[in-house]
Each structure stands twice: as structure tokens, then as C-alpha cells.
Amino acid sequence: MKDKQKRKKERTWAEAARMVLENFSDAPMTPKQILHVIQTKGLKEMSGTAPLACLVTMLHSQVRGDRVKNSIFFKLPGRMSLFTLKVLYSEIVLPA
């Protein structure tokens, strides 16, 4: 039991968001929706008073600037705050 709690505590926002978008969603999600799943499934231990702000900051920093090339996240163009994984977006836009 301690190992499971330790993994949850050590999980980053990026890891938790990736898990949500990979396993619990078949469509792009807003940060608020992602956070709701993280909380209900217990994917990350919460501390502090603004978990949504932390998640939003991480997502936006991943899709801007120099990190875009290496990021696993993708913000849908023309949408205020809808995020998905790059792999999922390429499958939707460029079906095989």
C-alpha cells in the first residue's frame, strides 16, 4: 500500500494529465475537466490551495516556446483551452 501512495505523491502534473488524456478521455479536455478526473481517480496527491492554477500553468508552458517540440501535449488551435496528446491529435487529423 505504501508503494502505491508513494507513486501517487511523486507523480507530476504532467504525468497525471497524460494518464487522464490517455486512459479516461477520447476527446480533448479543458484543464478543469482534466483536474476533475485527477481528483476523482486519485491520480495525484493534492497540496496547496490552487491545484487548477498549477495544472493550467504546466499545460500552457508545455505548448509554448521552446518546449513545443518535445511536449506530449497539444492545444487545439482556435480554442481557448482544449488540450489533448499530440499522438491523439495526429490520429484524429490524419487518419490512417
Structure, described:
This protein has helices at residues 2-10, 13-23, 31-41, 51-62, 86-93, and strands at 73-75, 83-85. The protein has 96 residues and is mainly alpha-helical. It has one domain (13-93). A two-stranded antiparallel sheet has the order 1-2. Helix 2 (13-23) crosses helix 3. It starts with a helix and ends with a helix. The mean pLDDT is 84.
How would you summarize the topology of this molecule?
Layout: H1 2-10, H2 13-23, H3 31-41, H4 51-62, E1 73-75, E2 83-85, H5 86-93
Antiparallel strand pairs: 1-2
Helix pairs in contact: 2-3
Query: Main beta sheet: strand number and arrangement?
Result: 2 strands, antiparallel
How many domains comprise the coordinates? 1
User: What structural class results from the helix and strand content?
Assistant: mainly alpha
How much of the sequence is in beta strands? 5-15%
Rounded Rg: 14 Å
Report the span from N to C terminus: 42 Å
Low-confidence stretches: none
The residue fraction in helices comes out at 40-55%
Number of beta strands: 2
Order of strands across the biggest sheet? 1-2
General shape:
globular
Number of helices: 5
Task: Compute the average pLDDT.
Answer: 84
